[in-house]
Amino acid sequence: MTTPAMTTLAVTGSPLWYASRAGGTLALILLTATVVLGIASGGRTTPRRIGRFEVGLMHRNLSLLTVVFLAVHVVTAVLDPFVHLGWAVSVMPFGASYRPLWLGLGTAAFDLLLAVLVTSALRRRFGVRRWKAVHWLAYAAWPFALFHGAGTGTDTRLPLQLWLYAACLVAVVGAVCWRLAKAGPGRVTGRLVAALATIALPVVLTAFLATGPLQPGWAQQAATTTVLPGGGR
Fold first, then answer.
1. Which of 18, 122, 152, 172 is the one with CA 20 to 30 A from 204?
2. pLDDT 10s digits, 57-90
3. What is the rounded distance in angstroms from the CA atom of residue 178 to the CA atom of residue 103?
4. Chain-centre distance of CA 79, in angstroms?
5. Tally of CB atoms within 10 A around 158
6. In 3D, which of 188, 173, 181, 196 has the Cα closest to residue 44?
7. What is the C-alpha to C-alpha distance for residues 69 and 82, in angstroms, rounded to an integer?
């Protein structure tokens, strides 16, 4: 039975949904800043005027803030009564009945960041090589998070949100290009892969937005459950 309160929330949007979107957006911004700082300061490219300790401390603090806002995003999304995600969806990718692909990408990004967080806390036990191998997963989490946000949010069509995604994309692509320009000889395969990914990602994202979220009716097509009008579903 639908109550007047439920009808109102369906039209205006649940406060939990707004909290989830705000937490997710802030988490994406912070994750982008973390990735950019990690790319720009890695290897021999650390700025001379800033010590590695200060860079490492800033990188760690940004990572922790990312996890905090990501936790807010996940908790408020699960508690939102209109979606009924369940707690298992927050750690098991592609198991949701609601927008399984795009929610699954977000869950995969969350799991990757959790793996980085746990191994960082147990860094001495894992060893430097194993820790670095897992730490690279943070870079894989970023495109997952970007496509998750673009694919799940019905506010993707808003100009401000599009500009936000564009800014995040430009920041990471710019950092990769700068890193490649500063890189010394060697590791040709790794640099080639990074260059190809840098070229492909903007193309894929633009094509996805043009054929998906920016098309009328995308919200209904992406979801396998009832889409609520006006409520960001």
1. 18
2. 887 888 889 989 999 998 988 888 777 777 887 7
3. 32
4. 20
5. 11
6. 181
7. 21
Q: Which helix (H) or strand (E) holds 220?
A: helix 218-222
Q: Which of 155, 156, 152 is nearest to 222 (CA)?
A: 152
Q: For the residues of 144-174, what is the DSSP string, one character each? A: HHHHHHHHH-GGGGSHHHHHHHHHHHHHHHH
pLDDT in tens, 151-186: 887 678 888 999 999 999 999 999 888 888 877 666
In the block, tokens 């936790």 appear at: 71
Nearest-10 crossing angle of helices 137-152, 100-121: 150
The answer to whether the CB of 125 falls within 8 A of the CB of 90 is no
Residue with tokens 């997952």: 144
* Rounded Cα–Cα distance for residues 77 and 83 (Å): 8
Ramachandran assignment for 96, one of left (phi > 0), alpha (psi -120 to 50 degrees), beta (any other): beta
- Put simply, whether the predicted model's pTM sits higher than 0.90 gets the answer no
